[in-house]
Design goal:
The complex is a heterodimer of chains A (about 270) and B (about 625). Chain A is of the alpha/beta class and about 270 residues long. Chain A has a single domain, classed as 3-Layer(aba) Sandwich (Rossmann fold). Helix content of chain A is about 35%, strand content about 25%. In chain A, the strands form two sheets. Chain A has a six-stranded mixed sheet with strand order 6-7-8-3-9-10, sandwiched between helices. In chain A, helix 4 (about 125-135) crosses helix 5. The relative contact order of chain A is 0.17. By secondary structure, chain B is mainly α. Chain B folds into two domains: about 80-265 and about 290-380, Orthogonal Bundle (MetI-like fold), CATH 1.10.3720.10; about 385-624, MetI-like fold (Orthogonal Bundle). Helix content of chain B is about 75%, strand content about 0%. Chain B has 24 helices and two strands. In chain B, strand 1 (about 70) and strand 2 form a beta hairpin. In chain B, about 50% of the residues are buried. The chains are: A alpha/beta (about 270), B mainly alpha (about 625). Chains A and B meet through strand 5, helix 3, helix 4 and helix 7 of A and helix 21 and helix 22 of B. The structure holds adenosine-5'-triphosphate and magnesium ion. Magnesium ion binds near residues 65, 66 and 194 of chain A.
């Protein structure tokens, strides 16, 4: 019995952070408004993001995609003058509520940014950073988490033998996968990605897209993208935003093949200046 | 699944993080020390002047309007007229000389100079700004004043020499602020003018200068505040007799000079000393007002530059477009008449000549600097012997040395930084990483900005009242270091904040996105990357503290001839020694002052070289 446990531990190597305890990770937004000062950047958005599916936000520049995405892990709190109203239920808890701690929330909701932003440290230290700030010190546990995260981010094959090297030396695509690995290392339920491929070349992009396909087996993924083909390729559900409003939301196939709204159709067919 | 059916409570509930709160309160406390320092300044000046104004021998009306200032004797009289006259003449003279020079240099640098010249001019201006005022004072009294004595029959002490030297001292601030505001003028405006067929000269003088006029105004105001608050040059070169006279070749006393006179013990105890506080209060009020006016203008420029508030820039542009109609007609007339009278060449000649005239303003300053360094080397180099470093001060110039003085200065500066660095860096971290944009933090920033503009001699009064008397630390190393610490605090805060700001925002976002707390983000990612910048800034503040004379004039004692053994001992510092030796009637001691200046400048040079080395190394090693 003990042998079985040990073996299991080695294989699974679950980060012992109280993260993924919920069996489901879904989001219900109800009447979300987001303001920058007096400017309402997101207007009355309601939608449901499903468990272990990839949801994409598309829309023209400045329509509020990033703003909405950053509401999901309360990164907007970091911007002076940004105010959010309405409710966002994450597994039943309103994360816009007063009682929610953004820091704990972010442990459960990882984020990958538009430009790869590794810390100027070694590859190992980048991935181990999250677990470390949550108090994991044991070398063997850290080794295990780093390896698993890098494998999950499809980067282990390329960097497994040079973990001590600086992350800055990696290529752009590798850096972005490292950032994904770094986000996975804290064992989140959900991953937010804000145009993760816009700074990458096509080969790196396709690697990340493959990765997203793998990730949705164990994570709920929300992705913002400018690239409609990409949204069509990777997502299960798509929301089209325009001037802060969620114009249409539904299964990706339906949105791209039979949009119900004229605005959506115009955008998708490129008739949108 | 409906939200309400979820069991197990809220996994993201607020965690209790006592450490995080404690740290942010602690940092806030450090930043708030700036408020306490400001209160200490106001308490010092108000409390001290109160004793003065309630004295039976003092008439408040006469204080502001009287023309007779004789603070001691049987029937003292306190009419500040001569002090105000001295201050206005000297600061005003410096401004009339240095203001146009600075604006010309700025216009040259911003509109005409090659990058290579800019690259040289910047460190050159930094050198001018970095030379301690005691060195300028020495140069004014023993070199420039000599010229006026020889050719204009000036008094031994005269306002003219102080004016000339101070004109150069205010140059760096006038140039840098003007230059910033000219560079902030949008390129579109220049292009609009050039596209109409205006020459670069016409564009610079008729479009850029008017558009940058508020910034130029601010630079002149800041220069004025600097000149009014300057102590060492006037106390050395302009003299200490308060007589009403309109000649710049006569002896004049400024407000700062009177306070310094009290500090050096030349005023016997009594009401005369209290008068220094009243004068300090007036001085503080004047400089505060001028700095406040300047900051109003500067803030509006800064906003134009920093991204989000593009409105300001557009405002500038549209106001410039207002200018354009006149200009257009003017220029069109010109272009037409040019075609006819073919005086196009005239316009180019004007540009050539203008450029040379502007550029020569920098040359003037350069010649001044070379002359200054040359005369100090000439006078002091021969005294630079090994035993000058190892001997003790002595009344025999042949035997006098500065060993305990060097020690005193080193202890003083180290102790100063021990107080100023943690507080300043903590305050900077609070302001840059923790502070939200609310009225309190805006107020804090204002306070710090104002502290940076307080004349250094006023800090002397504060040190005397608060540290020497109130805390009864006496005339000790501790009092001196604390006084210097509150003086350099704003500089440490500003330079550290700059270093923190240069750390890319993406590092903070990445760490925060992973669930790091604010303090974890700062400690793991911001601080390690900001350290070289913070160090560089601290070294520069350190060199400021090392060269500063006025604030410790009250505290350092010329009679302590040995190095301090404890922080409660009396001490002597390099700039103080230079001050007394420069004032010494014997030529040999004046030579020793020059030698001590060489030592001081060498130390400053080394410190700056280290700072530059750190900056460069970190930039070349920087991975982001
Ligand atoms: N920090 C901020 N302060 C003030 N306004 C902001 C800020 N960030 C975004 N906005 C405004 O909010 C609106 C939505 O911006 P957001 O970045 O969410 O758009 P986006 O859809 O992500 O655009 P893009 O495709 O260009 O990234 C825009 O009008 C923008 O100007
Ligand atoms: Mg965006």
């Amino acid at each position: 019995m003990f042998a079985f446990l040990n073996k299991k531990k080695k294989e699974e190597c679950v980060c012992p952070i109280p993260g993924k305890e919920a069996k489901e990770a879904y989001i219900d937004m109800k009447g979300v408004n987001i303001f920058y000062g007096s400017n309402r950047a997101v207007k009355d958005v309601s939608m449901r993001i499903k468990h272990r599916k990839v949801t994409a936000f598309i829309g023209p520049s400045g329509c509020g995609k990033s703003t909405l995405l950053r509401a999901l892990n309360r990164m907007n709190d970091e911007i002076d003058g940004c105010k959010m109203t309405g409710s966002i239920f994450m597994n039943g808890v309103d994360i816009l509520g007063k009682k929610v701690d953004p820091v704990s929330l972010r442990t459960n909701v990882g984020m990958v940014f538009q430009k790869p932003n590794p810390f100027p440290k070694s590859i190992f230290d980048n991935v181990a950073y999250g677990p470390r700030i949550h108090g994991i010190r044991k070398k063997s546990t850290l080794d295990c988490i780093v390896e698993k995260s890098l494998r999950d981010a499809a980067l282990w094959e390329e960097v497994g033998d040079r973990l001590a090297e600086s992350a800055i030396g990696l290529s752009g695509g590798q850096q972005q996968r490292l950032c994904i690995a770094r986000a996975l290392a804290v064992n989140p339920e959900m991953i937010l990605m804000d145009e993760p491929c816009s700074a990458l070349d096509p080969i790196a992009t396709s690697k990340i897209e493959d990765l997203i396909f793998e990730l949705k087996k164990s994570y709920t993924v929300v992705i913002v993208t400018h690239n409609m083909q990409q949204a069509a390729r990777v997502s299960d559900d798509t929301g089209f935003m325009y001037l802060g409003e969620l114009i249409e939301f539904g299964p990706t196939k339906q949105i791209f093949q039979r949009p119900k709204q004229k605005l959506t159709e115009n955008y998708i067919t490129g008739r949108f200046g | 699944m409906e939200p309400s059916t979820e069991k197990g409570g809220n996994p993201y509930r607020k965690r209790f993080r006592p450490g995080e709160d404690l740290i942010s309160w602690f940092l806030l406390g450090m930043a708030s020390l700036a408020i306490i320092v400001s209160l200490a300044i106001i308490y010092t000046l108000v409390d001290g002047s109160y004793g003065f104004f309630i004295d039976a021998r003092v008439d408040i009306i006469d204080f502001f309007t009287g023309k007779n200032w004789s603070p001691h004797g049987a029937t003292p009289s306190f009419g500040m007229g001569p002090l105000i006259q001295g201050t206005v003449m000297i600061a005003g003279g410096a401004l009339i000389l240095g203001g146009p020079l600075g604006i010309m240099a700025a216009l040259y640098l911003s509109e005409f100079a090659h990058n290579r010249i800019r690259a040289v001019a910047k460190p050159f201006l930094e050198i001018l700004a970095g030379i301690p005022s005691i060195v300028y004072g020495f140069f004014a009294l023993l070199v420039i004043s000599q010229v006026f004595r020889d050719y204009f029959e000036a008094d031994y002490f005269n306002a003219a020499s102080a004016i000339v030297v101070m004109a150069v001292m205010i140059l760096p601030i006038v140039v840098s602020v003007s230059d910033d505001s000219m560079k902030a003028v949008p390129r579109e405006m220049r292009e609009a003018s050039l596209a109409m067929g205006a020459t670069k000269w016409e564009t610079a003088t008729k479009v850029v200068m008017p558009a940058a006029s508020s910034g130029i105004m601010a630079s002149v105001l800041l220069g004025l505040a600097r000149a009014i608050g300057e102590t060492m040059v006037v106390v050395l070169a302009a003299g200490s007799i308060a007589k009403f006279s309109w000649s710049i070749f006569h002896e004049h006393m400024t407000m700062t000079a009177y306070i310094a006179q009290v500090a050096t013990g030349d005023i016997p105890p009594g009401i005369g000393i209290q008068a220094a506080f009243a004068v300090g209060l007036v001085l503080f009020a004047i400089t505060f007002l001028i700095n406040w006016l300047a900051s109003k203008v500067v803030i509006s420029i800064k906003k134009g530059g920093s991204g989000g508030l593009r409105r300001k820039k557009l405002g500038l542009l549209s106001s410039a477009l207002h200018l354009l109609p006149n200009l257009t007609n003017d220029l069109l007339d010109k272009v037409r008449s040019d075609r006819m009278s073919k005086n196009m060449t005239m316009r180019y000649v004007k540009e050539r000549v203008g450029k040379v005239v502007l550029g020569s303003s920098l040359l003037v300053a350069l010649v001044f600097l070379v002359f200054l360094l040359y005369s100090i080397l000439e006078q002091g180099l021969s005294g630079l012997t090994p035993h000058f470093f190892t001997n003790f001060p002595s009344s025999d110039p042949a035997k006098a040395g500065i060993w305990p003085v060097i020690q005193g200065s080193v202890y003083l500066v180290l102790l100063t930084m021990l107080f100023a660095m943690p507080v300043g860096i903590g305050a900077a971290i609070y302001l840059n990483e923790f502070a939200k944009e609310n009225w309190f933090n805006l107020f804090l920033r204002r306070i710090i900005q104002n502290l940076a503009g307080v004349p250094s001699i006023v800090f002397g009064l504060v040190g005397l009242t608060i540290f020497v008397r109130f805390f009864s630390f006496g005339l000790s190393l501790l009092s001196g270091a604390l006084t210097l610490a509150i003086m350099v605090l704003p500089i440490v805060i500003v330079t550290s904040e700059e270093a923190l700001r240069s750390v890319p925002q993406t590092f903070r976002e990445a760490a925060r996105g992973l669930g790091a707390t604010k303090w974890q983000t700062v400690w793991h990612h911001v601080l390690p990357n900001a350290i070289p910048g913070v160090l560089t800034g601290s070294i520069l503040s350190l060199s400021r503290a090392l060269g500063e004379t006025a604030p410790i004039l009250f505290i350092a004692s010329f009679f302590s001839k040995v190095a301090p053994n404890s922080i409660m001992d009396g001490f002597l510092a390099l700039p103080i020694t230079i001050f007394y030796w420069t004032k010494h009637p014997k030529q040999e001691f004046q030579d020793l002052a020059a030698t001590t200046i060489i030592v001081l400048l060498l130390i400053l040079l080394t410190m700056n070289a280290v700072a530059i080395f750190i900056r460069q190394r970190s930039q070349s090693k920087r991975k982001w």
